[in-house]
Amino acid sequence: MRFTIASVATVLIGAVAVLATPVPKYTGCSLSSVPFPKESFVDPNNSSNTLPYPAANEKLAKIVLGYGSQNYSCIDGTPTPNGAVATLYDLSCAFAVSPEWADVLTRGAVQMDPTAQLAGIQMLKNMFNAQFIAGVHYFKGDFATPAFEFTDKGKFIGGVAGKIPALSGADAGKRPDNFGAVPSLRLAPKQGMGSTYSTIYRLHTAGGSAPPAKCSWQGQRQIPYAAQYWVYKST
Ligand SMILES: *[C@@H]1O[C@H](CO)[C@@H](O)[C@H](O)[C@H]1NC(C)=O
Ligand SMILES: *[C@@H]1O[C@H](CO)[C@@H](O)[C@H](O)[C@H]1NC(C)=O
Ligand SMILES: *[C@@H]1O[C@H](CO)[C@@H](O)[C@H](O)[C@H]1NC(C)=O
User: Fold this and answer.
1) Which residue of 1, 83, 86, 161 has the smallest Cβ count within 10 Å?
2) Residue 160 contacts by C-beta under 8 Å, 6 or more apart in sequence?
3) 45 CA distance to ligand 1 centroid (A)?
4) Ligand 1 center to 18 CA (angstroms)
5) 150: nearest Cα among 197, 216, 112, 217
6) Ligand 2 centre from 139 Cα, in Å?
7) Is 45 touching ligand 1 by the criterion CB < 6 Å?
8) pLDDT in tens, 88-133
9) Where does the pLDDT of residue 1 fall: very low under 50, low under 70, confident under 90, or very high at 90 and above?
10) Is ligand 3 within 6 A of the CB of residue 139?
């Protein structure tokens, strides 16, 4: 399936039509009936290797689609992670239709031309006056400290606290950078850095992996990726 602005717009508009509420909503839909994605917490090749579940006192606060690039430098012939940057989009109303719609959007995002994608989001924003952009994801200078800043002023600054391979059948990425989907992750906040959320999971990844071979490029290589970030808050 080819993903174009039109197909993604159709999905979003289809989503909206299904949500035949008195006032159609495009962002900020309730997450209370989103099913917990158990299969995303299990290593597809080793069922005893799992990501820890959210704690009983943690409540699902947001699901956003992250689209951007995983960056790599070539150090001594080895591709070495060098941060990442992504725009975060509100996925709550896609989930209000079904997790499958949300997955189509996540897979579709990584296949889109970045310029076309921004134009598409702008078009949807203008058509519906909906603010799909929910924040940004980037790394602090040490490349081991993922940070999230949300448009509602919420933030999260943390580190990796659990990792399993991507779901089986995950989208390998956008050609010619289709080197596989980055792992699923559990992120925990770093103390004293002002996080307003307690855990973030990176799930349903698409693309973003480094080229597998030894490298010889100069500077940085940016590999497109997309993922769902499930954001939990302690209550
Ligand atoms: C999981 O197993 C499949 C089939 O044996 C293999 O193709 C795939 O590379 C494995 N994935 C990981 C992450 O090891
Ligand atoms: C499967 O995962 C468990 C838990 O992480 C680990 O102890 C075990 O060695 C893994 N098995 C294989 C075959 O890798
Ligand atoms: C990663 O690449 C993006 C372009 O996709 C760039 O804007 C960003 O500054 C890079 N991040 C780092 C940490 O180098």
Assistant:
1) 1
2) 144, 146, 185, 186, 187
3) 6
4) 37
5) 197
6) 30
7) yes
8) 999 999 998 899 989 998 999 999 887 777 777 777 777 677 788 9
9) very low
10) yes
